[in-house]
Amino acid sequence: MGTQGEEEVYVKVSALEAGQLTLPERLFITNADPEKKATVPSLSFLVQHPSADGKITKLVFDLGLKRDLSKYPPAQQAHIANRQPTILHPDCADSLRTGGLDPAKDIDIVVLSHVHWDHEGTPDDFPSSKFVVGSGTLHLLTNGAPPHYPKEIFNPDLLPKDRTQELPPTTSDSSTAAEGQTDHVWKPFAGFPNTVDFFGDGSVYIVDSPGHLFGHVNLLARLSHTKWVYLGGDCCHDPRILTGEKDIALYDDGHGGLRSVHVNTEQARDTLDKIGPLLKKPCPVIQSGDEPVEVEVIVAHDKGWREKNFKRFFPGTL
């Protein structure tokens, strides 16, 4: 694991309110009440990374919902009509301002777990930020992934072309990565085959987390010598799937077969299998000398986590 000098580097992580949407349980978990719906958050997070020179790099992971639903493509608005009620304020930018940061000036980097409508937020609120997305995201924004994700639901101009960096395919190495990507090389860590040590000091890892949508990534961050947090995005939509109490729901795909909310259900299950060891106490896949390590796993739509952790929202910290 990389270190800066002999010192371990730790980051501060804060949850951010970034809108809420309503999900029917039957589409997400097995053995669901067919009529039950829940209004859940789409959590964003602020990560503050200290450098040796004293600079604090501010990274936002996910942007949640747009505060103006009319800014989505018409085809996407039709889908959003089935996810009502939505709560659009505070959005991610509002939450940063409440904690004393200006999204237009103070955020250095935005990492999107993926570009579904409830995570893409309003990139225009971050005119000085660099954007980082998983491999395949830019192709998806332009071409979609038919039949379930037609290109009409995406905006090819969502991200600023001159400030967006797409991570290389996981099969790339430093010799084949595109220009500007040579500092982001996938390596195994914590039981995951493909992670990027984002700051090069072992404090923040971008984790390739395939299955949900092309380009889906998670974030693993070190909070102290023995405490980490795993930001799971849409690896699953209900924490009971993580614990094994529920499984991923399958439903009629409209084409004579079954599908889930994931573009590749088996890949999604494989990703969940790799996240599973992080839930164990102590964590068996991250070492910190002889001391036991604990990892908190947070998924984007965990209503219960939000309701129990208001003090950990910015300007509070995890």
From TrEMBL:
InterPro entries: MBL_superfamily_lactonases, RibonucZ/Hydroxyglut_hydro. Keywords: Hydrolase, Metal-binding, Zinc. This is Metallo-beta-lactamase domain-containing protein. It comes from the Eukaryota. GO terms for molecular function: hydrolase activity; metal ion binding. Its cofactor is Zn(2+). Residues 167-179 have a biased composition (Polar residues). Residues 158-180 are annotated as: Disordered. Belongs to the metallo-beta-lactamase superfamily. The keyword Hydrolase applies. It comes from Cladophialophora chaetospira.
